[in-house]
Amino acid sequence: MDGTYPLSPRTPVPARPGSVCRQVRDLRHLATAQAVLGAETDFAALLRGGGPRASRASRWCAESSTTPWYGSTPSTFEPLVVGCHTRGMDTPARRTAGLDLDFPQSLAVYDTYEEAQRAVDHLSDKDFPVENLMIVGTDLKRVERVTGRLSWGRVALAGAVTGLWFGVFVGLIFALWVEEGGVLGILLSTALFGALFGVVWALIGYGATRGRRDFSSVTAVVATRYEVLVEHKHREAARAILAATPGLLPDPFAQS
């Protein structure tokens, strides 16, 4: 023994800069030395003896051997990040490929998409690098437009029309492999079966609602405002171009 590691189990191993796993290995060396001298403890046996816990510790060390502990100097603080725990996790600022800017800043906010599109188109006409722009819809809301009242007759008619068109489409596909004289018969038969299937399917679906939804509607998710974002290094140039044309740069203090 060279005296590097104390033999008393009560004496802590001094923390060292570098890897946590290096300290774990130091503890295992200490446990081995204690076993040789006959002073083995339960903790030392766990570190030295292997088993499921030791296997997990070894695997953890192998996966996080490059993960630093706290900074090597007292004035440097680096948070502990365990590699095996963060593997496969998303970062807080996860980005969508092709739809992100490095450091975006707000250029202008518009009430409609057409106004935002007009501003970007004007910047493009002035040879501004529009690849540094992004239109973002904010304050999203779900809008459901009621189009009419539903009844058994309306549901059956809508199902028949939908099934009819589907049957004609299937008949045209089958008609590619039959002789010329049998095309009309295939189209009529598939259209008839399609309409019948559409009626039955629509009535089953409407009956399953049990009268809780006797109306038809169209649903969409729309944005209340549209914000144009620009890369920070091009913000002043973009604002200067928009400000030169009246109506393209809205007043941020205007009442909506």
Automatic annotation (TrEMBL):
It comes from the Bacteria. Keywords: Membrane, Transmembrane, Transmembrane helix. Residues 106-173 form the General stress protein 17M-like domain. The chain crosses the membrane at residues 155-177, 183-204. It holds the Pfam family YflT. InterPro entries: GSP17M-like_dom (IPR025889). This is Transmembrane protein. It comes from uncultured Nocardioides sp. The lineage of its organism: Bacteria, Bacillati, Actinomycetota, Actinomycetes, Propionibacteriales.
